[in-house]
Amino acid sequence: MSLAAQPADAPAAANTVKIYPRSEHCISRTQISENALKVLTRLKKADFEAYLVGGCVRDLLLGREPKDFDVATNASPEQVKQIFRNCRIIGRRFRLAHVFFGREIIEVATFRGGVDNEESDRQVVHEDGRLLRDNVFGTLEEDVWRRDFTVNALYYNIRDFSVVDYTGGMQDHAAGVLRLIGDPEVRYREDPVRMIRAIRFAVKLGFTLHPDTEKPIYAQADLLKSIPSARLYDEVLKLFLAGYGLQTFEMLRHYGLFGILFPETERCLATQEQDFPRLFLIRALENSDRRYNDGKTLTPYFLLAALLWEPLQVAAQKRIGNGENETLAYQNAANEVLARQIKITAMPRHITQSMRDVWFMQPKFSRTVGTRPYRLLEQPKFRAAFDFFQLRAETGGADPQLVEWWAQFQEADEELRKQMTAPGKSGGGKPRNRKSGRYRSRTKPVVNPQ
User: Fold this and answer.
1) Angle between the N-to-C axes of helices 326-342 and 263-270, in degrees from 0 to 180, rounded to the nearest 10
2) What are the DSSP calls for 355-381, one per residue?
3) Strand 104-110 versus strand 70-73 pairing type
4) For 155-170, how does the pLDDT look when each residue is reduced to its tens digit (9 = 90+)?
5) Distance CA 190, CA 54 (A)
6) Where are the beta strands (DSSP E) in 373-446?
7) Which portions of the chain are predicted below pLDDT 50?
8) What is the pTM of this model?
9) Which H or E element spans position 110?
10) How far apart are the C-alpha atoms of 178 and 200, rounded to whole Å?
11) Residue pLDDT, tens place only, 240-283
12) What is the largest CA-CA distance in the chain?
């Protein structure tokens, strides 16, 4: 590799490329998607360079099944499209070619390069250092230094089945270290989302952050405020709905990033009383992680409703204290909390509506007489709302006896339901400790999955 292709802040120990032949790594073609192999092979036959790169190589080395397969090549997006009729060019910030094989998409990226005067109009940099558009193409040697972490900059070469390493990524991979390529402060300014990705990858892979990668996060967390809210919403889903949400939550708080993503929730956590609402949020995250690891579906609105539940309570109680009707207070508080959060993480309308459904059904669980329980049971979001209510009861925020009543009511036959909802026969709730907002009960709640 020529040093001209390497940025001045590249690691000094990585001045030369190291090739790991097939005998020195564990990646086998049998582990690679057939469609990815088709893309690699056809690019090679067309006399282009073609490599698997990024997370798929990293995961294959860990013995994990990659979620998707990404390809890097010296072919331009237009040239890729000429080779594959089932291809579509996407992206503005950086143009990519997506090759479609039914439901599987193989993403093909052209090698990125440095910036020169002739191509400066193809790279747009914000005054704060963020890259707004980056369509400068280059060579493999240049592409390496544009990637984020060393363990994500390993290239699997289809020509000889070797792994190409310019950054010491194989050594970091073996040591379980996540290290940014280049000057971390500069790289975080280029794309502040890299701070979130660092946390996500560290938790997902069980790696530790290299000290140079870790240190700037504390001081540069505020850079995330410049990121478009739609992009941050997508990142939040990756952070909390991938089976390790609780660990991610703790690490985000440690580095001051959670407060950027959910500022009102962070303020509530900072002023919590008797470990509430932190315990409720932890149980909600544990619940989602358990469901993911059991192969069950996850609904983003459920966890987002949990993340913003306490800010909703604070806003509603403030309105009630000012004399507003309780139902109206909660509706208006929901409008306020969601309007502020959407500016940070642009949650779609169908998500926020489902969050409202879960929230507004919570007080209705205390109404166990007459026809109201029947009507509540027919609501489309009843099951999610009941699971939410159960989590609240498990952490002291609702009456466990009501959870037992509703668990029985759902399974009861029509005759028993009539008896349960008759006046004077309702399960009712125990007295509430108004000062702490928690219920007193010696009854162990029924445990049901979300």
Assistant:
1) 120
2) HHHHHHHGGGGG--STTHHHHHHTSTT
3) parallel
4) 999 999 999 999 999 9
5) 19
6) 432-433, 438-439
7) 1-14, 115-126, 129-133, 426-450
8) 0.83
9) strand 104-110
10) 11
11) 999 999 999 999 999 999 999 999 999 999 886 556 668 999 99
12) 85
DSSP state of 118: G
**Which backbone phi and psi does 148 adopt, to 5 degrees?**
-85, -60
Q: Tokens at residue 219, please?
A: 């001081």
Q: How far apart are CA 366 and CA 420, in angstroms?
A: 13
Long-range CB contacts for residues 33-40, cutoff 8 Å, separation at least 24: 33/69, 33/104, 33/106, 35/69, 35/99, 35/101, 35/104, 35/106, 36/69, 36/71, 36/106, 37/158, 38/101, 39/71, 39/84, 39/99, 39/106, 39/108, 40/71, 40/158
105, containing H or E segment: strand 104-110
pLDDT above 70 covers a percentage of the chain that reads 84
Burial letters for 157-181: b for 16+ Cβ neighbours within 10 Å, e otherwise? bbeeebbbbbbbbbbbbeeebbbbb
- Contact between residue 245 and residue 226 where contact means Cβ atoms under 8 Å apart: no
> In this structure, what token pair is assigned to residue 84?
């594959």
Active-site residue set: 68, 70, 148
Reading phi first (left if > 0) and then psi (alpha if -120 to 50, else beta), residue 54 is in left
Q: Return the axis-axis angle of helices 300-307 and 278-293, rounded to nearest 10°.
A: 160
